[in-house]
Amino acid sequence: MMMNNNVLCLLTNPDGSPLGAPMYLPQNAAPQHLQQIVNKLLNNEEKLPYSFYISDQELLVPLATYLHTNKLSVEKALPIVCQPQAIFRIRPINRCSAAISAHAESVLTVAFSPDGRHLASGSGDTTVRFWDITTQTPLFTCRGHDSSVLFVAWSPDGKYLVSGSESGELICWDPQTGKSLGNFMQASATKSVSSSLLPKKRGRSSRRGSENKPSNKKDNKKMKKWINSISWEPVHLNAPCRRFVSASKDTIARIWDISSKKCICLNGHTQSVTSVKWGGDGVIYTGYSFPFLVRLLYSL
Questions:
Q1: Which pLDDT belongs to residue 275?
Q2: CATH topology of domain 2-84
Q3: CA-based max dimension of the chain
Q4: 44-76: string of b/e by CB count within 10 Å (b at 16+)?
Q5: CA angle 258, 260, 261 (to 5 degrees)
Q6: Per-residue pLDDT tens for 32-60?
Q7: What is the pTM of this model?
Q8: Which candidate, 97, 242, 223, 234, places its Cα nearest to that of 165?
């Protein structure tokens, strides 16, 4: 219904419930004007963005233009659906919410648990500590490393935490008890399988089984230099979580199985492997600090 260049409109929620009584709106009312009206109707202290729909078609122009373009004759109140838009807010961090002290030396690595309720930290004092984020209190102090802890990584299901040290040790911890589940370097029954890293040219990747020949080189199992990075196999690829890959200064990336304690050594790097990621597609990505390369490996 139109009167004196005004259009009778009924603003509704996405479920069809009205925001109020029908009202006359100027024909030149555009979406930005409707946003002001809706925020006022809902008494929003913080002005929120909305999108508007008429007959499942988004309103992007003034009402008059929309009615003319679609050749609509309004005999009754024109229903307009008001859809709240998602908001991404960025706020500056200008204060420290809490400071938790306990480590005797510098904290070198931290990682939040997948559910965000706990924190693990590794320090130059050779310990791994678990923290409760809600209460901001320590849970467990884990001892077992003989050198600085450089990297900690939670399994995607939150059931395990692996820590890597400056001496090349890897220890798996139970976050529920803080107890060690094993030092991988001390697993004497472990059999190592060496798999050559094949792409020797940039931009090339090696697929599973293509020229990779297994061997029984047990000396590759023990890392001779510090751990640079650890990454778990994504849980959607293999549940429950049991495998992770580590990168070391000794130029070798290794895949570990926490159940069997077996290790697969991925040789072929010529420089320190500074980072490693187990991708969601099953591909393992390794990075060099020099000559600034990223290599792709298919997990075995």
A1: 87
A2: Ubiquitin-like (UB roll) (3.10.20)
A3: 90
A4: eeeeeebebebeeeebeebbbebbeeeeeeeee
A5: 60
A6: 999 999 999 999 988 889 999 998 899 99
A7: 0.58
A8: 223
The encoded tokens of residue 1 equal 């219904």
* CATH code linked to domain 107-298: 2.130.10.10
* Cβ neighbours around 99 below 10 Å, total: 6
| Phi, psi dihedral angles at 103 (to 5 degrees) | -65, 145
**DSSP label of 86:** P
Q: Convert the pLDDT of each residue in 84-141 to its tens digit.
A: 987 777 777 777 777 777 788 889 999 999 999 999 999 999 999 999 988 888 899 9
* Continuous segment of H or E residues that includes residue 64: helix 63-69
Confidence of residue 199 (pLDDT cuts 50, 70, 90): very low
Domain locations along the chain: 2-84, 107-298
Q: Which two tokens stand for residue 59?
A: 């309103």
Exposure string of 280-298, with b = 16+ CB inside 10 Å and e = fewer, is: eeeebbbbbeeeeeebbbb
Nearest-angstrom CA–CA distance, 277 and 139: 28
Do 125 and 163 contact (CB within 8 A), yes or no? Answer: no
